[in-house]
Each structure stands twice: as C-alpha cells, then as structure tokens.
Amino acid sequence: MGFVDEAKFFVKAGDGGNGCVSFRREKFVPKGGPNGGDGGKGGDVLLRADRSLRSLIDFRYKSHFKGLAGIGGQGSDKHGRSGGDCVVRVPVGSLIKDAETGAMLVDLTKDGQTFCAAEGGRGGLGNARFATSTNRTPRKATPGQPGEERWLLIELKLLADVGLIGLPNAGKSTLLSKLSAANPKIAPYPFTTLEPQLGVLSFKFIDPCIIADIPGLIKGAHQGVGLGHQFLRHIERTSILLHLIDAAGEGERPYEDYLTLASELAAYKQELFARRHVIVLNKIDLIDAQRLDQVKEQFADLDLPLLAVSADEGDGLESLRELLGDLLERQRAEARHDLSGE
C-alpha cells in the first residue's frame, strides 16, 4: 500500500435547480398570475484543512468529490432548496494546484482554513421573475447553471513533527524502528518519489507525534544530487530536525558528517536553521568511553542539545524520548500562545 505525498483528484460542484413555470389556480381568478419559484443553488466542493490528518492516503480510496444539485423551484412561489456542500478534509500544509495549468490555487497552512475548489451552479429563475406590465403570463423559466468541475493536484509537505536527517548508514531506520516499535505504525508508506518511513512516537503525558526517516540526503543534495530537492522539500515544514551522526567514524569524521548535513540545509533554505535542532551520536556500542568523549568534544562549540545513543542496543533512547517530548510540549505551548494572540 502506498503512502502518497501527491495526489490527483476530481471535484464537481452541484448543478443549480431549474426554475419553475406555474400559474396561480384560484377559484374566481380564471387567469391567475405566474407563481413559479426559483431553483436552488448547487452545493460547493470545499477543501478544509484538518490538523488531525497526517497523510494523503485517503485519496487512494476516493478521488472524485461532488456537491449535491439544487432542488428545482415549484409553484406557489416555492423556491428550491440549495444543494449540500461537499467538504473534503485535507492535512494542514496541503498545496492545491490546478492539474491542467499547474497554477497554485491555495496553500492551506492553518487548521480550519477553507478553500472553495468548485462553486455550485446558480439556480434557474421561475416564471414569476419574468412578469411585466405587458406580459403578465410569462411561460418562461431558466434552467439551473452547471456546477464548476476540474481536476486538482494536492501536494503535502508537512510529513512529521520530528524529521530524522543523516547520511546513508547513520542508522536512521534502526532508530525509528526502536522509538516507535511499541506504537501503532503509520509506515511503511512509499512516496511517489522517495521511500521514507514514518512511525508514531508516544509519550506518557502529551499527545503522540509523527517521526519520519526520509532517506536521500548526501553531499550536493541542494544542487539536485541523489534525491536532492525531493528530499529537502519534505523537511521544509518539519518542526524538529534530529541530526543522526555515526559516532563510530574515525578521526574528525563525525563532525565532518554534521557539517555536510548543515551545509546542505543552509544551501537549500536558510530558514531551516530557525527550527529546533538536536544532535544524536549513534553507534556508541562500537566505540569505547574515551573515544566517545573525543567525539563529544568535536561538538562542544555548538549550542545544540547533544545525546549519545545506540539505536541497535537501545542505550540512551529513553533520554532521547524525554528530550523530544519536552521540545514538542514547549513548541505546542508556543503555538497555542500564538493562536490566542496573547
């Protein structure tokens, strides 16, 4: 089953209801006036951002969305009821584009933000609308207008709260499997262009988060080398970046690996350094305590949280979980504060 970060779907708004031709039929009024009502408006197709959604997997099972048609008008000046809207929930962070032109239509960045993807057709006019002083018995009504329809593309950039970044063989997949092994998994879902692994990281006192290992970052990625931009674009909205470093490398290799990661991020988008960053030294089971101290010393000048773990053996993982929980709780508190405007 494939996890998709891009999907194509069809939207069709409801058609407007037809106007009605009708005349008053009353005793002692042999030629009653027109009383045909208007048709109802067709239902819109609305896209609504929902922060509880984390993926586009639902679009694999349904790709056509339609608003309801408006009801036709009736006699006695009864107007038809408008058709119900079709509300499509999408994850926060979804980019919506026109499939034919590629033009970006909206970037749904806030929970509850709504975009009208297809507008319902107008209802037709009943014959009561066409009565004039010279034509008191019009037999004319107009049909409802068709609702808008089109194919759209949706692209999701926000994949996870925590993103694992590291050079190949740093141990990201192993770390992810150990952190989320006891939790229900969202992954593995292959992307259309990458194959990241996603997992749910649970905590004792706060809501769980999504953690993602997205492979593909190598030297020159910002220039398109390897998976290049296809990797980097998927971490643009990841709020915490966890740099996983192979501590078993010889000499200055661990710090050089970090510099490679940092330079690729900076070359792609400087704003990525405004995120929270954590450095995790992995594979400490392969080195002795003296070498671990030497590796830690290489990172002494960086003002970033530094932890040492063995993803394979499980050492240090509980401390990492606690740190991530603290960072997420602080971040969520700041987000609530921003929303309240205080």
Please outline what is shown here:
The protein is of the alpha/beta class and 342 residues long. The protein has helices spanning 172-179, 228-232, 253-268, 289-298, 317-340; strands spanning 6-12, 45-50, 64-66, 86-91, 94-98, 104-108, 114-118, 149-156, 162-165, 197-201, 209-213, 240-246, 276-282, 306-308. Mean pLDDT is 82; it is low at 182-194 and 220-229.
Walkthrough of the structure:
The protein is α/β, with parallel strands linked by helices and 342 residues long. The protein is built from five helices and 14 strands. The strands form three sheets. It has a six-stranded mixed β-sheet, sandwiched between helices. β13 (276-282), α4 (289-298) and β14 (306-308) form a beta-alpha-beta unit. The protein is rod-shaped, with a radius of gyration of 29 Å. The protein starts with 5 loop residues before the first strand and ends with a helix. The model is unreliable at 182-194 and 220-229 (pLDDT under 50).
Element-by-element helix/strand order: EEEEEEEEEHEEHEHEHEH
Extract low-pLDDT stretches: 182-194, 220-229
Shape: rod-shaped
Hey, roughly how much beta strand do the residues contain? 15-25%
Continuous helix count: 5
Rg for CA atoms: 29 Å
SS-based class: alpha/beta
* Spatial strand sequence of the major β-sheet: 10-11-9-12-13-14
Instruction: Estimate the helix proportion, in percent.
Output: 10-25%
